[in-house]
Design brief:
- There is one protein chain.
- This protein is an alpha/beta fold.
- Helices cover 43% and strands 22% of the residues.
- The chain has eight helices and eight strands; from the N terminus they run H-H-E-H-E-H-E-E-H-E-H-H-E-H-E-E.
- The chain has helices spanning 23-36, 40-54, 70-78, 93-105, 141-154, 172-188, 193-203, 212-222, and strands at residues 60-64, 85-90, 112-116, 127-133, 155-168, 210-211, 226-233, 236-242.
- Strands 1, 2, 3, 4, 5, 6, 7 and 8 form an eight-stranded mixed sheet that branches.
- Helix 5 (141-154) links the parallel strand 4 and strand 5.
- Helix 2 (40-54) packs parallel to helix 3 (70-78).
- The longest helix has 17 residues, at 172-188.
- The radius of gyration is 18 Å and the shape is globular.
- The mean pLDDT is 96.
Length: 244
C-alpha cells in the first residue's frame, strides 16, 4: 500500500489543540512512526519473534492500541500453533478502518478480529500474549495500573506482555540528553523545527511518559515477577513481563 509522507505540521497551525488519532494522522501514520520512533521497525519484527516462542495452541493474542496493525501482522506471520485468535483493538475509528484493510490484504491461517473499543472496557481471557505497543502512555495515569492488572489476570501461565513506551528518566542529565537525541533523530529524518515544536505542543497534554522504574513497579503490583527491558533506543524502548 502506498505510504503517504507526514506533512501535517509543516506549516504553522493557528490553534493546535490536543493530539488525536484522527483521519489525517491515520493517513500518514506509517511514515510518521518510522521517522519519529527510533527502533520501531526492530520492535515490530522482534514482537513476531516473541510470538513464535510464546503463543500457544488454542489461545488468544491481544494487540491493545493496535493502530494500523503492524504488531498484529508481525505476530500473525510468526504464529506456528493451531487454533489461535488475534484481537486487534483500538479506539480510533480512522485507525481501525485502515487496520482492517491491512489485515484483509494479507491472508494467513490465524484469524484476526479488529475491534473499535476502549481498552479500559474490554474483556480478555485465555491469553498467551498481549501487546501494548506505545499505547499505555496515552491512558490517564490512574487507568494504567488497572489495565495491567486486567492483562495479568487474562494471561495464562507462561504468557507474555510486551510493553513498548516512550520513557522519561529520573536522572535529569540523562533525561535531557536522551530527549535531545530523539529530536536529533527526528531532524535527521527530515522534520523541521516547526514540525517538531507543533507536534510536541499537541502531545504534551495527552501523552504522559513514565520512567522504566515506574513501569516495573506497576508490573510487579499487577503480579508479574519476571520483568526486564529488552530493547531501548534513546528514550524509547520495550519491556517484557512473563507470567509464571
Amino acid at each position: 500500500m502506498e505510504q503517504k509522507k507526514d506533512l501535517l505540521f509543516s506549516t504553522p497551525i493557528e490553534s493546535l489543540g490536543d493530539w488525536t488519532f484522527d483521519d489525517k494522522v491515520a493517513e500518514v501514520f506509517p511514515d510518521m512512526i518510522q521517522r519519529s520512533v527510533p527502533g520501531y521497525s526492530n520492535i515490530i519484527s522482534m514482537i513476531g519473534m516473541l510470538a513464535t516462542r510464546f503463543v500457544t495452541a488454542n489461545t488468544h493474542v491481544y494487540d491493545l492500541g493496535c493502530s494500523l496493525g503492524a504488531a498484529t501482522l508481525s505476530i500473525r506471520r510468526n504464529i506456528k500453533q493451531d487454533n489461535c485468535m488475534i484481537y486487534a483493538i483500538d479506539n480510533s475509528t480512522a485507525m481501525v478502518e485502515r487496520c482492517q484493510k491491512h489485515i484483509s490484504a494479507y491472508k494467513a491461517a490465524t484469524p484476526v478480529e479488529v475491534i473499535c473499543a476502549d481498552i479500559n472496557s474490554i474483556t480478555m481471557q485465555n491469553a498467551s500474549m498481549v501487546v501494548l505497543n506505545f499505547t499505555l502512555q496515552f491512558l490517564t495515569p490512574d487507568a494504567r495500573q488497572q489495565v495491567l492488572n486486567k492483562i495479568y489476570q487474562a494471561l495464562n501461565p507462561n504468557g507474555i506482555l510486551v510493553l513498548s513506551e516512550k520513557f522519561s528518566f529520573e536522572d535529569n542529565m540523562v533525561n535531557d540528553l536522551l530527549f535531545d537525541m530523539h529530536y536529533d533523530f527526528k531532524r535527521a529524518n527530515g522534520y523541521s523545527e516547526l514540525e517538531i515544536s507543533q507536534k510536541r505542543s499537541m502531545l504534551e497534554n495527552v501523552m504522559i511518559t513514565d520512567s522504566i522504574e515506574t513501569h516495573k513497579t506497576r508490573l510487579i503490583n499487577a503480579g508479574f515477577k519476571h520483568i526486564n527491558t529488552w530493547f531501548q533506543c534513546f528514550n524509547f524502548g520495550s519491556i517484557i513481563a512473563i507470567k509464571k
